[in-house]
Amino acid sequence: MSRIQLAQGSGGRENQQLIRDLFLKYFSNPILAQLDDAAVVECGTTAVSTDTFTVHPLEFAGGDIGKLAIAGTTNDVAMRAACPEYLSVGFIIEEGLETELLERIVASMSSELQVTGARIITGDTKVVPRGAVDRLMINTTGFGAVRADCSVKRIVPGDHILISGPIAEHGACIYAAREEIAIAGLTSDCQSLWPAVKALLDHEVPIHAMRDATRGGLAAVLNEWAEQSSTRLMMTEEVIPISEAVRGFTEILGIDPYILACEGAFLLSLPAENSSEAIDILHRCGHPDAVLIGQVENADNGPQVILTSAYGTQRLLDFPYGEILPRIC
Amino acid sequence: MLTHEDLYQRLRSKDSVQQLTKQIWQAVEGDDQPFRIMEVCGGHTYAIVKYGLDQLLPSGVKFIHGPGCPVCVLPQHRIDAAIQLARRPETILVTLGDMIRVPGSRSSLQQTRAEGADVRFVYSPLETIQIARDNPDRQVIYYAIGFETTTPMTALLIDQARHADLNNLCFHTNHVLIPPAMNLLMEQGANIDAFLAPGHVSVITGVDIYEPIVKRFGTPVVISGFEPVDILSAVLSIIRQLKKGLSCCENNYARSVRESGNQKARDLVDRYFELRSDFLWRGIGSIPESALQLKPEFAAIDAERAFAEDCPQAGEEQSSGCICGAILCGHASPLDCSLFAGICTPQRPQGSCMVSNEGACAAYYRYRRTQS
Amino acid sequence: MCLAIPSKITAIDKETSMATVETMGVTRSANLALVEDEVSVGDWVLVHVGIAMSRIDENEARKNLDLFEDILREEDELNVSDSGPGQC
Question: By the 8 A CB rule, do A137 and A95 touch?
C-alpha cells in the first residue's frame, strides 16, 4: 500500500509530483493552475473565514474530513450572506498516511466544491513526522462576495428564530465513532448550506443573522446571539427538530443534544412577518425540516436563552462547558 | 409487545403530565401542610430540574435534593487517591466520565490527565478488559464508583478479569450504599416528610431495603422511575399517603423493580465485596456500614492495599465555605449558598453538589441560574 | 444516579452472553450476564453502563400505562378512586 512520505512535503520533485498527481488533478482551475506564489483575484466586499479541521475518524458516516473542510468554511462564508467563491487550502499530513485515503478525501473535497461552485485558488502541503499530527489536518480559508448585510448585530426583539434542520447529527455521529462506543444508526449532516442561503437571498428574504450550529451546537450559538445582541431568546423545546437516532444516542449516554455539533444545519434570525416565507423556501430547497423554534425578546434580566418545555415549564439553556462525556448518573 | 411509544412517549405525554399535575393540586387543595419530598437519587433531581416538574406543583410540595450522586459524596482524600494512582509510572487509571471534574484537595483527574497521566473515561466498565489486554506491560487500575446499581457492574468486570487471567488489572473501590445515608439524614433531623426512592438502585436491591426506614421514622417511601409521568405519579402517591396518615413502602416502578430485586447481581456483588465499618461522605460525614470494599481474599487486586502508599487516609476536609452538607440534608437550597454561580461553578466546583450534572447545585446552575 | 435506558433486544449471542439492543433506532451491544429472567429477542431490558440489569416486565408496564390512562379518563372527577397509587 502506498503511503505518504516525508519527502513528498519537502518542496522537491516528490512534492511537485504530489501536487500535480493529486491536488491539481482534483482542484484544477485556471487560477490555481498558474502555480504562482500567490493567486490574484477580483473581489468586491468580501466575507473571509478560516477554519482548521481535525476529526477522528477521518472518514465517517455521511462524510469525511475533506467534505467537512470545504462545507465547513463555505458555510461560514455563506452565513454572512456571501457567495463562496474562492478557497485556500493547507494540508498537514502525518507521514505514513495511506495515499489512497488521501486521494479519497481530496476527491470528496472536489465533489463538495461542485455544490457551491467555489474554487481552490491556492494551497500548501506539509508532511510532518509520525506523531506530530493525528494523520491529517486541513485548513481552509474561504472568500465570498457579500450579497446582503447579515450579522448578529442586526438581531432585534421581535425576530423569529428558525432552524434549517435536525440538530446534533454530526456531533452524535463523530462522538460515537471516536469513542468507539459501538452505536450504529447515526449519520453526519455535513453539507454545504450555500444553495439554501442563495435561495433565501434570491427571494430577498430580509434575514437579520444566520449561523451554523457547529461546535457547541445549538446551545453555543443561541447563547452567543443572546450575548452579542443583548437579547433574551425564548425557545420552544418540543419543536426543535431532533432525529430519533440522535435522541436515542443522547438518552443512552446522558448527553444534552443541544450541545452537540451540526455541520449541515443553521439558525436564522429574521423579522416575524418573513418567517413563514423563509420556511417555505427552505422546505423547497433540501431542508424539509426547517421550522420556527423561538423568538427574540428584550433582555430585562440580562442576555439569556430560555427553553420552554412541552409542559410549559421553563429552564435555562446554558453555554456548553467541559468535555462531553457519558455519565452514569 | 412493548413499544418505544409505551416506554418513552407515553411516559412523557403532555396530557398525562397535565392530568397528574391537576390531581396533585386537587389532592393538596385547602391543605396548609407542607409536603417535603426528598428525591434521594440524582437522576431524579436531574429529571425534575430538566423538565421543570417542580414548577408544575403547588408551592407546598417541595423537592429536597438528596445525596444520590455517587461522585458528589466522595470525600477529597478518595479523589486524591485516584489522582495519585493515575500519576504512578506505567499506570492507566480507568473510570467513568462522571469523575472527570470532581475536585480533590488540590487537583482533579482532568488536570492530572492534562499533566500527562493516562486517565481514560469509559462508557462501560467492561471496556477495561480490553484496555488491560492491550497494555500488558502497564498497571491498569479501575477506579470504581457508584451506588447499588453500579456495584454489580464492577463485580462483573472483576469476574470477567479473573476468567481472562489478567494480572495487570486491579480495583479501587468506592461503592456506596443508599439506605445508610437515608437513615443518617433522618437521624440528623432532616426536614423530610417522604422519600422518592431511587428506581435503579431498587432494581438491584428490591423493595425491602427501605422497610426499616419506613418503620423507624414513619416516612413514606415510594420507588419511582425517571420519566415525568413516573415521578409525578410517585409524588401523587406520596401526597395521598401523607394525607391519609399512612406510611409504607410503595413500588411505583414495578415494570423494572421486582419485589426481591436482582438476586443474581447481588450474589455476584457478595462474592467480591464486603461492608466497610464506616465511610466518609463528603458534606455529610462518616456513616457506618455505608460502603463496600473488596474482601480480604482479593487483596492482590485491591489497589487500596496493593498501592496503599498512594491512597491517603481520611484527613481534614478542606472547606471552601460551601453549604453542600446543609443542601444534602434538606436544610438549604443551592440558591441559598453565597458561593453559588459566583465562586462555585461547574468549571470550578468548590463543593460536592456542583461537580456532577446530577448534583443539586450543578442542576440548578445549568437550568435555574438566572431565574433566582 | 444511575442512568439506565430501556432497550429492545434485537439479537442474542448465547455464548458470549451479549445482546444487540436498540433504543430509538440506535443499536449497540449490551451484556446480559446479570439478567435473571430468561430473555429473548423482542424483550426489553434496562441497560446501565452497557450491562443489562433487568428485563422490563410487560404486564407491569401495561398496568402502569393503564393506570395513567385511567387517570387521563378521570378528568374532572374529583378524588379519584381509592384504587390508584397511594395505597399501602
Answer: no
